[in-house]
Amino acid sequence: MSIGVGVIGYGYWGPNIVRNFMETPGLAVRAISDLSEQRRGLAAMRCPGAKVTADYKELLKDSSIDAIVVATPVGSHYGLASEALKAGKHVLVEKPMTASVEQARRLVDEAASAKRVLMVDHTFVYTSAVRKIKELIAAGTLGELYYYDSVRVNLGLFQHDVNVIWDLAPHDASIVEYLIDQQVACVSCLAMSHVPNQPENVGYITMMFNSPIIVHLHVNWLAPVKIRQTLIGGSARMIVYDDMELSEKVKIYDRGVELASSTDRIHELRIGYRSGDMHAPKIELTEALHVEAAHFKECMEHGKTPITDGQAGLRVVQMLEAASHSIKHRGRLIDVATMQPT
Amino acid sequence: MSIGVGVIGYGYWGPNIVRNFMETPGLAVRAISDLSEQRRGLAAMRCPGAKVTADYKELLKDSSIDAIVVATPVGSHYGLASEALKAGKHVLVEKPMTASVEQARRLVDEAASAKRVLMVDHTFVYTSAVRKIKELIAAGTLGELYYYDSVRVNLGLFQHDVNVIWDLAPHDASIVEYLIDQQVACVSCLAMSHVPNQPENVGYITMMFNSPIIVHLHVNWLAPVKIRQTLIGGSARMIVYDDMELSEKVKIYDRGVELASSTDRIHELRIGYRSGDMHAPKIELTEALHVEAAHFKECMEHGKTPITDGQAGLRVVQMLEAASHSIKHRGRLIDVATMQPT
Amino acid sequence: MSIGVGVIGYGYWGPNIVRNFMETPGLAVRAISDLSEQRRGLAAMRCPGAKVTADYKELLKDSSIDAIVVATPVGSHYGLASEALKAGKHVLVEKPMTASVEQARRLVDEAASAKRVLMVDHTFVYTSAVRKIKELIAAGTLGELYYYDSVRVNLGLFQHDVNVIWDLAPHDASIVEYLIDQQVACVSCLAMSHVPNQPENVGYITMMFNSPIIVHLHVNWLAPVKIRQTLIGGSARMIVYDDMELSEKVKIYDRGVELASSTDRIHELRIGYRSGDMHAPKIELTEALHVEAAHFKECMEHGKTPITDGQAGLRVVQMLEAASHSIKHRGRLIDVATMQPT
Amino acid sequence: MSIGVGVIGYGYWGPNIVRNFMETPGLAVRAISDLSEQRRGLAAMRCPGAKVTADYKELLKDSSIDAIVVATPVGSHYGLASEALKAGKHVLVEKPMTASVEQARRLVDEAASAKRVLMVDHTFVYTSAVRKIKELIAAGTLGELYYYDSVRVNLGLFQHDVNVIWDLAPHDASIVEYLIDQQVACVSCLAMSHVPNQPENVGYITMMFNSPIIVHLHVNWLAPVKIRQTLIGGSARMIVYDDMELSEKVKIYDRGVELASSTDRIHELRIGYRSGDMHAPKIELTEALHVEAAHFKECMEHGKTPITDGQAGLRVVQMLEAASHSIKHRGRLIDVATMQPT
Question: Where does chain D have alpha helices with state H?
C-alpha cells in the first residue's frame, strides 16, 4: 500500500516535487492545492491521477493522505506545517523551514509531540556532489577544516517578500550545516539594496565557530553570470566544488601547507608548500529530489530521523536570522545563541 | 640627457622594475642596492651598466641619480622614501605606500615641501584591462555603479611581516581607488589565521561609501587554485574582469534590471530583466610596468601629478588600516575618517 | 480544428517529438506505435490522450491522422515514409532521411507526386544558435567563407546498425547544408573501428566545394569528454560555436587577415593581422523541436516548403553516402555527383 | 671546462636557445651569427660574452666551439648542419630537421661517419607534460592505443617559405614519433590556401599504422582562438592534454568501453561503458629547453644517443613529406616507405 502525499503549492518548485514523488515507488501523490487557477490547470494536466483544489484544508482532511509537502512562500511555512502535524500528517517543508527561529523551535516541538516525521527540503544535501564531499570530510581526507567559501550569484528573480539572503543563502547554510559537525557561534552580514523599496539584492555572510573554521557566503541577484563555486580548504587537502560543471563537479587538490619545525628560532618557522595531484571522483548523476523522496518515504515507514530533520532546519534558520540581525547592526557579529552582538 | 634612477631592493619585484626602466628611453638605471649578496650578484649580472651596492645611502648621495625606486618590504617604505625626498630625489614606492596612515600623510607632505614627484607603484592601474574599465565607467557605459566584487586567491607565499590583507588587498584597493570617484566611508574586515603564530591567511573586506556602492574583497593565501575574478555591477551594464584569461580579460554584459513604473500601486513596482549581448573589447598586451615607467618619467620631466600619486597611496593605506582596525573589533565597520567603529 | 499526428517509434528521440508536438497549438498527437511493449507502456502513461499500438499500419489507416512522424532506426525510414505518403499523409522523418541516395531521390519524388509535405528532422537547423549564424553569414558579416571545422565527440552509445559517421555526422552535415549555399563537390573520409565486429567508432570527414571552402568533421564515440565545438572562418570575421556553453554559445571574433598590396613586388604581398573585439550575441533559449513543430504545422497548413525539406535531406544523405564510399576507397575524394573517386 | 657552443640564427627561436644554453652549467655560448644587423645588435646586448657576427663560417672555424645550433629557416638546415659536421662539430638542428627525406637520410649518415652528436630540437618531447604521457603509455596505463587527435590552431604568422603543415605539424609529428613505438605506415593530407599566392593555411593530416591506431592533426593559421588540445584514446584509459591550461595540462580519464562476451549470439556482443574518476597528475613547470640543453650536453660528454636523434628527425620529415605528396594526390594515402599512393 502506497503512502499518500498531498502537495500544497504548485509554483516554481512544486512541479519538481510532484514529478519526483510520482516516480518514487511506494509514494502516491493524491492531491495538489494552489491558489492560482492557472497553476491548478497545469497540475491537473500533468498529474491526472491527483485531486486538484484551491483549498489546502481539503488535503489535511483527506484520510488517504499521510504526508503533506509544504511548497509555498516562506511566510506560510510554519502555519501550514503546524496545521498538517495537528492533522496527523508527516511533513516535508521547503527551505528555509520557517521565517523565524521561534517558529522553527515550535515546529520541532510540535513534530515531536505529534510523533510525526518533520523533514526539510535541503535539496543540496541529497546531491551526489555534496554527499561525496561529506564522505571525504568524514574520512579525514581534508584534514582539519580551515574554510568554506561559496559564491552563489546570477541574474536572479527579485523576490518581493524575502531578500537575497533568505532566498539563496539557505542552500549554502544547509550544506554547511550538513558538512561541518560544529555549531555556528556567530554570524556577520552586510548587504545592500540597489532597487528602491526592494529587499537587499547582494549580501556577504561570514560565520565563525568555536574553532578556526571560517565560512563565507556571497549571494547576489544582480550578477552578470551564474556562478556556483565553493572552495573548501583543509590542512591536508582542498576542494573546488563547482555546480556549473557538467562533469567533474568536485575536484580534490592534494595541496596545502607544510610546517617544518625549525630548531633555532620560533619566529623562523618554515612554511613549505605541497602542490600535488588533482583528483575528480566520479559523481553519479542521480537527481537529488529523487534520493530525497526515497529518504522521506523510508523515514515515514521505519520511523527514522531524516538527515535534514527539524533540527537541521532550525540550525539553518538560526544562521539566517542571525544574518538579518547583523544587517541591522551594520555587520556586527551576532551570537547565534543570544541573537545579540558579540 | 637621461633621468638617472636608483633602485633600492632587488628582491621579488625589483628585477621587473629594473628591466622595464632599462627599456624605457630617457631613463637610465644607474645604481641598485640590496642587503643580500646573492641578489647583488644577480643584479650585477643582469644590469652590467649599473653600480651595485649594499648601502642604499650611496644612491642618495649620487648626484647622477634623480629618482629613487623603493622596492623593499613595507616596513621600510616610509623611512627610505622620506630620506630620498630629503636628498632631493623623486620617489616611486612599492605598494602599499607606507605601513600606516600617519606615515602616508607625512610622506605626502614631505613630497609637497620638497617639490618632488611622489608616485606609488599601483601596477594594476597601468594595465590595459583596468584602464579599459575606467574608460567604460567614465563614459557612463555601466550606468550607476552598484558593486565591485573581487576574488584574489591562490596557494601563495606566506609573508611573515604582513598578513594576507596587506599583501594582496592593495591590488584591489588601488583599483577601487582608481575606478570609483568617491571616498570610502567605512570598512569591515574579518580574517583568520590557520597557521600558529602566523599572520592571517584568509580575509574578507567590505567597503561602504556615501552611496549604495558596495565593495567586497576576498583574499586568501591558502586556496587550491588561482582565481583573479572581479564582478562589477552597474545599473546599465555589468563587467566580468578575469585576469587569468589569456584573451577576453574584460567582458561587458548588456544585462541588468529594468524598473517599470506601475500605475496602480507602488509596492507592485515591476522589475524586468534585460539579458542582452556580451562584448569583449580587445585589450592591448602592453606590460603595465612599461606604461608606468613612461608615466613616471613624464611626471618628472613635466612636473605632472602622477595618476597614482601620494594621495592615491594614502587612500589605499587608509583602507588597509581601517581593515586592520576592523579585524581587532571583530568585523565592525570602521569609519575611515576617524578610524573608530561606526 | 487541430492537425492529427501519428508518431511511429517511441525510442530515444520519439518522446521528445511527442512532448513538443503535444505542446504545439494546432497539433494533436492522436496515435503512437512502437514494437516494444515497454516503450508502449511509457507512451501510454505520458500521453494518455493518444492511441498506443504495436502496429504502425493502424496509424496509416486512421483518417483522423494527417501527418506521420517517422522516428525509427534509419533502415526503416524510406519504407515507412513512403507508405505514409501513399496513405496521403504528410511526413516528418528523423535524420538521416534515408539509408541511401537512391531511396532519398525516390522519396522526394513520391512526396512531389503525392503533393504532401516531406520534412526532415534536422534539429540543429532550428536551434537559435545555428539560425543566428545563418543570419550572420547571410548578412555578409563573416565575409567570404573559408572553413567550417566541427568536433563532435563523446563517450557515446555504440550503435550496431550504423557507424559513427551515420550516427553523429548528420548533425553537422545538416548544419553545413543549411549554412553554405553551395553544393558539396567531393568528400573524403577515413575512419577506424576499435571494437571487433563493430562499426567504425571514430571518423574524419573532409568536404570540398567548387570554391576554396573546406569543411571538416571529427566524430568519435570513444572520447573521454564531450566536445561540441565548431570553428567557422571567414575573410572578415570568425565564429566559435560551442554547443556545450550554457550561455555565449556563439562568439564572433573580429579577427582575420588583411592583405596590403605592395607597390614593388607581387610575391612580397604583405599580410597583416586584424585582432579586434569579440562579440557574443544573445541566443534565445527556445527548444529547437518546439520551433520545428510549429514550422511543420505551418508548412502543412499553408503548403509551404520546409526549410529542411526532402532536398535538404537528400543533400545530407549524399554527403554520408560519399563518405561511406571514401572509407572503402581508403580516404580518396569521392565526387558527390558520380559517387566515384575523383 | 665548458663545451663551447655557436648559434647560427638569432630570429624568433634563437634567443630562447641562447638564454637556456647560457644558464646550463657546462655549456658556454661563444658565438652567435645572424644575417640581420638588427638581430645582431640584440644578440650583442643580451649576450655580452659572445662573439656576434654576420658570417656563420667564423663559428665553424672557431676551435673553441664544439657544438653548433642551427636555428635558421628550414631550407638552410641541411646545408648548415652538414657543414658543421664536416667541421667536426656536434649539431643541434631546429625542427623540422631538413626540408626533405633525402636530406634527412644524408645528414644521419654524415653524423654517423663524423662520429658526432646529431640532435633535433623537438622541444615538446622535453616538456613535463609529454614525458608524463610517455610514462603513462609505457606503463600500460592507457591499455592498447586507439587514437591520437590533436588540434593546433591560432591566428598565426603566415610563413612565406613553408605551409602550415611544415610549420605547425612538426610539433605533433615529433610527439607522435616519441609516444608511439610504431612506424607510421601511410599518411593522408588535405589542405587549403585562402590567401592568393600563399602556402596552405589550414590542413588536416591522418596517419595510419600497421595496427588500429589512427592519428589525426588539425593545423590552422587562421583560427579565431588559440587551441592546443590533444585527445589520446586507449582501451583502458583516455587522456586530454591541453597545453593552454595553466595547471592540469594532462587529465587522465578512467573511461572506456568494456566488452562483455555474450553466451548466445556473437552479433549481440554487449558493449558496456566504464565512466570513472579523472586524475590530473602534478606536472613540473620546468622549461623544456632547459631540460633539452642539459640532455644535449650529456650526449656530447658521454657519447649518448639523444632521445630526439637524427632518426627521430628523419621520421618526422617522412611524415611531413608524405603529407606533401598526399596534398598533390588530393588526399590519397601515401605509403611512407615508397612515398607513393597506396
Answer: 14-22, 37-46, 57-61, 77-86, 101-114, 128-138, 164-179, 288-302, 310-328
Query: Do D237 and D101 lie in a common domain?
Result: no
Instruction: Tally Cβ neighbours within 10 Å of residue B175.
Output: 26
Min Cα–Cα distance to chain D from A282, Å: 5
Same domain, residue pair D91 and D217: no
Task: Kindly state whether residues B45 and B104 are assigned to the same domain.
Answer: yes
| Collapsed DSSP state (helix, strand, coil) of residue A275 | strand
- pLDDT tens sequence across A51-102: 999 999 999 999 999 999 999 999 999 999 999 999 999 999 999 999 999 9
- Interval D5-47: pLDDT, tens: 999 999 989 999 998 998 899 999 999 999 999 999 989 877 8
Number of domains in chain B: 2
* Closest alpha carbon within chain B to A241: B224
Contact map slice: C 172-201 vs D, CB within 8 A: 188, 190, 192-198
Instruction: Specify whether A142 is located in the same domain as A74.
Output: no
- Neighbouring chains to B with at least 3 Cβ pairs closer than 8 Å: A, C, D
Is C103 a domain residue?
yes
Question: Would you say residue A263 lies in a domain?
Answer: no
* Closest to D339 in 3D by CA, of D327, D325, D205, D208: D325
Interface A-D, measured as beta-carbon pairs within 8 A, has a size of 26
Distance of CA B129 to the CA centre of its chain: 14
CATH number at residue D80: 3.40.50.720
How much is the mean pLDDT over chain B?
93
Closest-CA residue of chain B to D48: B48
Residues in C closer than 8 angstroms to D196, CB to CB, are 269
Q: Which of D275, D276, D280 sits opposite A277 (nearest CB)?
A: D280
- pLDDT, average across residues B143-165: 91
Chain C positions in Cβ-Cβ contact with residue D269 (cut-off 8 Å) = 197-198
Domain match, B324 and B183 both = yes
User: For the segment A211-246, what is each residue's pLDDT rounded down to a tens digit?
Assistant: 999 999 999 999 999 999 999 999 999 999 999 998
Name the domain boundary from D124, D156, D186. Answer: D124
Interchain CB contacts (distance < 8 Å): A and B: 148
Is D35 in the C-facing interface, judged by CB distances under 8 Å?
Answer: no
Pairing of strands B67-70, D202-209: unpaired
pLDDT in tens, D252-304: 999 887 665 544 444 444 566 678 899 999 998 889 999 999 999 999 999 99
Pair type for strands A238-242 and A222-234: antiparallel
Cα separation, B320 vs B315, whole angstroms: 9
B280: contact with A, CB 8 A cutoff = no
Does residue C172 belong to any structural domain of this protein? no
CATH number of the domain to which A221 belongs = 3.30.360.10
Q: What is the pLDDT of residue C260?
A: 57
Separation of alpha carbons D189 and D58, rounded Å: 41
Query: What is the distance between the alpha carbons of residues A164 and A158, in angstroms, rounded to a whole number?
Result: 8
For the segment C206-217, what is each residue's pLDDT rounded down to a tens digit? 999 999 999 999
Residue of B nearest to C278 (CA): B280
Same domain, B227 and B267: yes
Query: Is there a contact between B271 and A195 if contact means CB atoms under 8 Å apart?
Result: yes
CB C202, CB C221: distance < 8 Å: yes
Cβ within 8 Å, pair D244-B247: no
Using pLDDT thresholds of 50, 70 and 90, give the confidence band for residue C323: very high
Residue B23: count of CB within 10 angstroms of its CB: 12
Residue A268 domain-assigned? no
Q: C120-175, pLDDT tens digit by residue?
A: 999 999 999 999 999 999 999 999 999 999 999 998 777 778 999 999 999 999 99
Percent of chain C with pLDDT over 70: 95
Nearest Cα residue in chain C from B279: C279
Measured in angstroms, the CA of C123 and the nearest CA of chain B are apart by: 24
Q: Does B163 touch chain A (CB under 8 A)?
A: no
Contact of C282 with chain B, judged by CB distance below 8 Å, is answered with yes
Do A88 and A209 have their domain in common? no
Do B44 and B168 share a domain, yes or no? no
Answer whether A285 touches D (CB < 8 Å): no
Q: Which residue range(s) make up the domain with C79?
A: 3-124
Q: Is the pLDDT of residue A264 over 50?
A: no
